[in-house]
Amino acid sequence: MTREPRPNGEPNCKAEVKVACALGNQACRQGLSVLFDRLPLLLEDLAVSHGDGSFRKRLAQLAKLDLLILDDFGMATLNAHGRNDLLEVIEQRCGARSTLITSQLPVDRRHDFLSGGNPTVADAILDRLVSGSHRIDLKGESMRKLKVRGKENAAAS
Fold it and tell me: N or C: which end of the chain has fewer CB within 10 A?
């Protein structure tokens, strides 16, 4: 899911997160396993798992989830290890399990974000993400702006 421009507000003010959470909630109600995580935090956890020797176990856990929701795709710079870890996660899930990505990053900038000097890795990640995917573009003003405007109007009354 994408939204342009991005509201720099609280996580609960982002429409794409609300949609992702609603889809995740519905999947849970149907008995499916779901994990919601911010991509920067997931990649940080995976980096730690390399150090303590649990990377393959963590990767297997992520591969078994029916739905993995990754929020804030494109918000933090990826290093080479993060790119490779993301590729491993996506590769393990590709064609077998659902992955939902929320992002403020315009589609035309995603390859640059993922490449970091290695366009082959970016191609591999995007190829796996785009294959069989559905894209939801959210339009309109940010919910944060609308909320602020509503408070201003209430105060003026």
Answer: C
